[in-house]
């Protein structure tokens, strides 16, 4: 069995008692209408008829894949599209995870399922070894759903956090429906780059409780250069509006754990703070001033950034690829984005996690 995938069964560090975390969660402005007395995952409320329709639609999409803006149109039972994934999913890591936002991870962690592959080609990808590589274990949707149950029952997690699912949406939909039959009862987190098609989000409507969505860059030139996508921002705006329409603003139960809603993340990048400013303005004006926002400052040069390549005109010289991004962000750059968010009327912000990552 793949060592990383089976890491759920390794000894976990003892989590902090919930009582010790409660004061920190009170900083999240928990009050109506963002406070829930109780919560039932959305997939639990689907009728058998709705489930059957989603299964049929998922199989149809696999035969003619249009579930991301690449619109490859391939039959995934016979070949792969740009994402290099067929009718199964390739999973890199399955384990309780403490590296997410505190309101998602809580005191017991989030049941993280990291998919291999991606429909973007971000040159700075912070999870390059997972998203740009095809390492891991091939699973059918049914086998994937069974892992959700193991995470829930063995890992005692607060939710199932499916990371980078944009290219395997039909399989994810089928896995959630299968896990429901097996007794799944925790919320589903759809952890996405926001490079989704509306068809994929329609398929996931009723299955996802929390959309954990990135908004990476604003300018078309940045999208083409850094993400290898023609117009990422246009797609992200359309996708985020659809997510907000489905689940609304982020809501919590009294223990400070998020159960339903949209959480937007923006990674501040070197020299790109003006794009972050535009993203904050758009979220406030076109989505909701009550959006829950995570303005992230942990950018580091990864993937292709900072790598050396020879200049074609001189075989003896090398140049640094994407040299303008080959540094950490400054406090001033982060402050510019945060101030723009405040000025735009946004007020619900995430605090950094107090844990480095996996409990293994």
TrEMBL record:
UniProt cofactor note: Binds 1 [4Fe-4S] cluster. The cluster is coordinated with 3 cysteines and an exchangeable S-adenosyl-L-methionine.
A molecular function (GO) term: 4 iron, 4 sulfur cluster binding
Entry keyword annotation includes Transmembrane: no
Domain Radical SAM core: 114-243
Compositional bias of kind Basic and acidic residues: 312-324
Residues that coordinate or bind [4Fe-4S] cluster: 118, 122, 125
Highest rank taxon of the organism: Eukaryota
Keyword DNA-binding attached: no
Cofactor: [4Fe-4S] cluster
Entry-linked InterPro entries: Aldolase_TIM (IPR013785), MJ0674-like (IPR040085), Pyrv-formate_lyase-activ_prd (IPR016431), Radical_activat_CS (IPR001989), rSAM (IPR007197), rSAM_sf (IPR058240)
Region of interest: Disordered: 304-325
Pfam families in the record: Radical_SAM
PROSITE patterns xrefs: RADICAL_ACTIVATING
Keywords: 4Fe-4S, Iron, Iron-sulfur, Metal-binding, Oxidoreductase, S-adenosyl-L-methionine
Protein family membership: Belongs to the organic radical-activating enzymes family.
Protein name: Radical SAM core domain-containing protein
Taxonomic placement: Eukaryota, Fungi, Dikarya, Ascomycota, Pezizomycotina
């Amino acid at each position: 069995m793949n060592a990383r995938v089976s890491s759920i069964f390794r000894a976990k560090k003892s989590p902090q008692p919930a009582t010790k975390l409660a004061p920190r969660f009170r900083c999240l402005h928990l009050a109506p209408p963002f406070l829930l007395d109780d919560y039932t995952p959305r997939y639990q409320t689907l009728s058998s008829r709705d489930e059957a329709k989603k299964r049929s639609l998922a199989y149809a999409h696999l035969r003619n894949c249009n579930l991301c803006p690449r619109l490859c149109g391939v039959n995934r039972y016979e070949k792969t599209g740009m994402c290099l994934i067929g009718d199964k999913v390739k999973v890199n890591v399955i384990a309780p995870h403490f590296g997410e936002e505190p309101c998602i991870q809580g005191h017991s962690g989030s049941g993280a399922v990291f998919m291999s592959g991606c429909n973007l080609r971000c040159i700075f990808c912070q999870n390059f070894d997972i998203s740009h590589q095809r390492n891991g274990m091939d699973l059918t949707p049914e086998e994937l759903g069974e892992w959700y149950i193991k995470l829930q029952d063995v890992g005692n997690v607060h939710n199932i956090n499916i990371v980078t699912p944009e290219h395997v949406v039909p399989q994810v939909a089928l896995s959630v429906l299968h896990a429901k039959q097996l007794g799944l009862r925790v919320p589903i987190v759809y952890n996405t780059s926001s490079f989704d098609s509306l068809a994929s989000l329609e398929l996931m409507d009723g299955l996802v409780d929390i959309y954990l969505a990135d908004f990476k860059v604003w300018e078309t030139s940045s999208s083409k250069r850094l993400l290898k996508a023609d117009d990422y921002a246009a797609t992200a705006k359309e996708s985020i509006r659809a997510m907000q329409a489905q689940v609304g603003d982020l809501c919590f139960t009294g223990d400070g754990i998020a159960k339903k809603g949209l959480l937007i993340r923006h990674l501040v990048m070197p020299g790109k703070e003006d794009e972050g400013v535009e993203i904050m303005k758009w979220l406030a004006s076109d989505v909701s001033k009550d959006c829950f926002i995570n303005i992230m400052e942990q950018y580091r040069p990864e993937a292709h950034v900072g790598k050396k390549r020879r200049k074609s005109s001189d075989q003896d010289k090398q140049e640094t690829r994407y040299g303008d991004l080959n540094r950490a962000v400054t406090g001033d750059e982060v402050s510019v984005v945060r101030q723009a968010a405040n000025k735009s009327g946004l007020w619900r912000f995430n605090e950094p996690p107090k844990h480095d990552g996996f409990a293994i």
